[in-house]
């Protein structure tokens, strides 16, 4: 018998409990995106077997997780995708899937909807030329919009997510209009982070001062959608924003009180699971420094309760902050923004160069920060290199 869907209460967000999980079912992928943080393509050497996959789904239900997003690689390449959706849905969990959309057809969408999938999100990284340069698959742009159309036709909520980088940052307004026309309800945006294959393309990573125009453009798009009463929402990812006049516009949700960035939620309300059973406090975190344990050896509940690698954001204070973040007015609340972005860019968390407020303060001083590539990534999934930060005069 299906359990009722678990509701989200304020109490869920005021204590450490797993509300949202992102589960990489497999690292197998039918694309080879040039900015992929996990370097997806082939399956991991030891991915969870059929029994372990279903047990993991049951553990997520038992732990009280409210929502699970299934990813890859490509989740639809996993033979038990439908079974996983069904187990989670019958356990009262809201289930969504993120995909590159290359081979998502009507039969698959019908099966997913029948198993209980609530929404499907498609990765669309710019207009056609930029998208296909990043995704490295000719025809991938059209496939994405076919997926959106099929999802809508079958009654799924359809969303899109975009990584913002130097290839597409100048076309955000045009892309938003295209997505609105395709019936996208929520557009999640985040910066491309120098992790995985993106770490091999340092010239694609935006410079810190570029965040000023990016955030202002996204806020304008949001305000325009509100003014025109469009069913379209810009959803700022964890490395977009940080205070200033646009923060509430991009961070608040329709029908709810205005809000702002309240620090990294990794290991507080969020967890991530890799296809081989590794559990992290956030799916985007680099694996090596944040591996909290493996589901082959220990239960999900034990990892959540006891792994230090998941608990880093629960009890920390401003003593770990460094650079300009250490002396920032918002430091006790912000805690240097997105942990994985800072760590993968500068080699450790605690200093966030991609911050609107910080870039604006520097601009007022006649300065801007520049990232200089200093160290290559080793070439493994969820790996990273290192940049150094320098200050230079603001031109003009």
Please give the order of strands in the largest beta sheet: 7-6-5-4-3-2-1-8-9
Number of helices: 14
Written as H for each helix and E for each strand, in order along the chain, the element string is EHEHEHEHHEHEHEHEEHHHHHHEE
Tell me roughly what share of residues is in helical segments: 25-40%
Q: Which overall shape is indicated by the principal axes computed on the Cα atoms?
A: globular
Kindly state the number of beta strands: 11
Low-pLDDT residue intervals, each spanning 5 or more residues: none
Distance between the termini: 67 Å
Radius of gyration, whole Å: 20 Å
Q: Strand percentage, roughly?
A: 15-25%
Q: Sheet bearing the most strands, described? A: 9 strands, mixed
Please state the structural category.
alpha/beta
Chart the SSEs and their pairings:
Blueprint: E1 20-24, H1 50-62, E2 67-71, H2 81-90, E3 94-99, H3 106-115, E4 117-123, H4 128-135, H5 140-153, E5 157-164, H6 172-181, E6 186-191, H7 211-227, E7 233-236, H8 247-251, E8 270-273, E9 279-280, H9 287-290, H10 300-306, H11 308-311, H12 331-334, H13 339-346, H14 356-364, E10 367-375, E11 386-393
Parallel strand pairs: 1-2, 1-8, 2-3, 3-4, 4-5, 5-6, 6-7
Antiparallel strand pairs: 8-9, 10-11
């Amino acid at each position: 018998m299906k359990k009722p869907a678990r509701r989200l209460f304020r109490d869920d967000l005021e204590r450490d409990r797993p509300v949202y999980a992102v589960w990489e079912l497999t690292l197998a992928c039918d694309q080879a995106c040039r900015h992929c943080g996990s370097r997806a393509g082939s399956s991991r050497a030891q991915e969870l077997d059929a029994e372990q996959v279903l047990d993991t789904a049951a553990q997520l239900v038992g732990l009280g997780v409210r929502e699970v997003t299934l990813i890859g690689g490509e989740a639809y390449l996993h033979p038990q995708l439908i079974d996983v959706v069904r187990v989670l849905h019958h356990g009262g969990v809201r289930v969504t899937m993120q995909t590159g959309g290359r081979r998502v057809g009507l039969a698959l969408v019908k099966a997913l909807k029948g198993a209980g999938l609530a929404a499907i999100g498609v990765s669309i990284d710019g207009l056609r030329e930029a998208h296909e340069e990043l995704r490295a698959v000719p025809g991938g742009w059209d496939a994405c919009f076919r997926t959106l159309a099929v999802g809508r036709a079958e009654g799924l909520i359809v969303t899109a997510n975009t990584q913002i980088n130097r290839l597409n940052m100048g076309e955000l307004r045009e892309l938003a209009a295209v997505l609105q026309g395709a019936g996208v309800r929520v557009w999640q945006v985040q910066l491309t982070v120098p992790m995985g294959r993106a770490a091999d393309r340092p010239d694609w990573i935006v410079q810190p001062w570029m965040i000023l125009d990016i955030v202002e453009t996204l806020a304008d798009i949001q305000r325009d959608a509100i003014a025109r009463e469009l069913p379209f929402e810009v959803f700022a990812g964890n490395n977009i924003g940080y205070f200033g006049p646009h923060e509430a516009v991009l961070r608040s949700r329709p029908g709810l009180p205005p809000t702002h960035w309240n620090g990294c939620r990794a290991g507080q309300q969020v967890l991530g699971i890799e296809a081989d059973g590794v559990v992290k406090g956030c799916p985007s975190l680099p694996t090596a420094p944040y591996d909290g344990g493996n589901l082959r050896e220990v239960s999900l509940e034990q990892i959540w309760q006891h792994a230090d690698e998941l608990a880093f954001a629960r009890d920390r204070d401003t003593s770990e902050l460094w650079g300009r973040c250490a002396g920032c007015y918002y430091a006790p609340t912000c805690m240097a923004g997105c942990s994985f972005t800072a760590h993968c860019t500068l080699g450790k968390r605690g200093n966030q160069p991609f911050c609107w407020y910080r870039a604006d303060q520097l601009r007022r001083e006649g300065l801007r920060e520049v990232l200089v590539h200093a160290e290559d990534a080793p070439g493994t999934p969820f790996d990273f290199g290192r940049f150094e930060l320098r200050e230079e005069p603001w031109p003009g």
